[in-house]
Design brief:
The protein is an alpha+beta fold. It contains 5 helices and 4 strands; from the N terminus they run αβαααβββα. It starts with 19 loop residues before the first helix and ends with a helix.
């Protein structure tokens, strides 16, 4: 990317195996800086960990870090505090197949065709879409 767009400066903050709850909990210590564009790609690990999606009112009412909706509110609030005019791109979790980690055969997960803790991965994608849609109404 840098070769094709040398004027673009980017910082990648990938946090392997983290949930939106983990990011929200550590948000002030992650060293996130002011930027013009932020992308947030979370949800799959929340689904696999069995975290509750919650309700859209958790986002609206800023109810805390107990649901994915609440976690996203904390994350987005932090990004907005750094730059209220920044573009925030929310990326939904993608469908996945069964997974086996190559270095640890005991580290495996089923694909998104199956619910985890009574919740589908699609429900997490739907929550993120709802937050993004709401954000476009208030931006």
């Amino acid at each position: 990317m840098v070769e094709k767009l040398p004027h673009v400066r980017y910082i990648n903050q990938g946090h392997n195996d983290w949930t939106s709850g983990g990011i929200a909990e550590a948000i002030d210590s992650l060293g996130i800086i002011k930027a013009d564009v932020y992308s947030v790609f979370l949800g799959t690990n929340d689904w696999w960990a069995g975290r509750p999606v919650g309700q859209f009112t958790d986002y609206l009412n800023n109810t805390g870090n107990t649901t994915v909706y609440g976690s996203f509110r904390i994350i987005i609030n932090k990004l907005r505090s750094l730059n209220k005019d920044a573009h925030i791109i929310l990326i939904t979790p993608m469908q996945r197949t069964d997974f086996v980690y190559i270095n640890d055969m005991k580290n495996n997960a089923w694909g998104s065709y199956k619910s985890k803790n009574g919740q589908s991965l699609e429900a997490f994608a739907g929550a993120i879409k709802a937050i993004a849609k709401y954000g476009t109404l208030i931006a």
